[in-house]
Amino acid sequence: MSDTALPPNIELGTDTVPVNNPYTGETIASVPTVDATAADSVLQQARAGRRTAAALSRAARASVLERAAHLIEERAESFARLIVSEAGKTITQARKEVARAVNTLSLSAGEARRNAGEVIPFNSYEGSESRQGWFTREPLGIIAAITPFNDPVNLVAHKLGPAIAGGNAIILKPSALTPVSALRLVGVLIEAGLPEEIVTVVNGDADIAAAIVAAPDVRMVSFTGGFATGEAISRAAGLKKLAMDLGGNAPVIVMDDADLDEAVASCVSGAFWTAGQNCISTQRILIARNVYERFRDAFVARTKLLRTGDPLDDSTDVGPMITREAAAATRAKVDAAVSQGAVLLCGNEVDGSLYTPTVLEDVPEACSIWQEEVFAPVVVLQPFESFEEAIALANAIDYSLHAGIFTSSLDRALTAADLLEAGGVMINDSSDYRFDAMPFGGFKYGSMGREGVRFALEEMTQPKVVCINRPTEGAR
């Protein structure tokens, strides 16, 4: 299949929507879109896919995923350039995403062969000495996967890889802002041998998504996106499994015994990688009072060295935000924070979809930039007086994905790991670290399920117990 061809099992509508380059504004593609009237057709295709997927051996699933990973690796530069043109990531960041997607599919192939269940020791219970058996992991059936714009290849791979490994069919609804990367990934899976009916791609509005989510045939919804949409999905879904990554507002604590140079470098990267459009992006940095000024001055100086501009230029550090409207809205939020007393240390300049990395201090805790996920290259610096205060500030937000702490004290680091309310605690690293094999998900409000290949596969399958009651000697 050519890079420009649509995969066979895309639901085709009579209308199309343009896909625009966030940096240049030019239209790079037009994709067919459907409305809620297409739901019956989509579900019919998915039912056929469910039967095909369930009949595939584990070896066949693994082979498809391994072959797809190899094909993407061969075409890595083409995939990276598509990510740049569609999502606005810098070319360096896009290449890293492609490498991660290759790893995600390779990990999925391994889980297809490995995560099969285990023996149950029935005879460990008195009265069950004559019994033996096991449990297997069986596919749920049809999984609806709804993906965001910010990692248009790897986050799709995180839905499709484990679902295919587990023997499921998938209805994929990619972000309307970045559907082409998802379509190319599905095309590669089909080229690698995946029966085309196993993945049905739907481009459309909220109405078609709601119809799919509510369908009884859909046994699980895997969603990455915002809280408002997540809440709407949970209301519409009915009795089915939900796995949701709904964002974060990541805190990082910098203790006075930390390596400040390392902490500054790591936190600048964690705050401004992918223009801050990342659910584990470092947003609130809490710094011990006696090193606050040193950290602040070094952090601001390093931030000012970042180059904002053309994402295809290898020297660019920060590319555009996903739309001009997103950049303008970010500036409005920062302006509102400044009007409430926050101090702007650098940034807050807009040029089309480009938004310069922005550092604030003295942000009131009632301000939206303190309380909510900004999803932009904006970071807040806040001093603290004691370790206990730092933990309280870090945990003050109602939802959480990752947190971090920089310290040279192992005891302090492990205490923080115990006390921080987060799905992942990064020690001597920023919040913005994720390895695709680790469990990944929220810890407080909106926490439903886990991604990370092995853990996603377990969410996307269900145990089936087989128990054999052997006759006793006298009954033979």
From TrEMBL:
Pfam family name, one: Aldedh
GO molecular function, one term: lactaldehyde dehydrogenase (NAD+) activity
Keywords: Oxidoreductase
Residue span(s) of domain Aldehyde dehydrogenase: 15-466
Family from the record: Belongs to the aldehyde dehydrogenase family.
Gene3D superfamilies attached to this UniProt entry: Aldehyde Dehydrogenase, Chain A, domain 1, Aldehyde Dehydrogenase, Chain A, domain 2
Name listed for the protein in its UniProt record: Aldehyde dehydrogenase
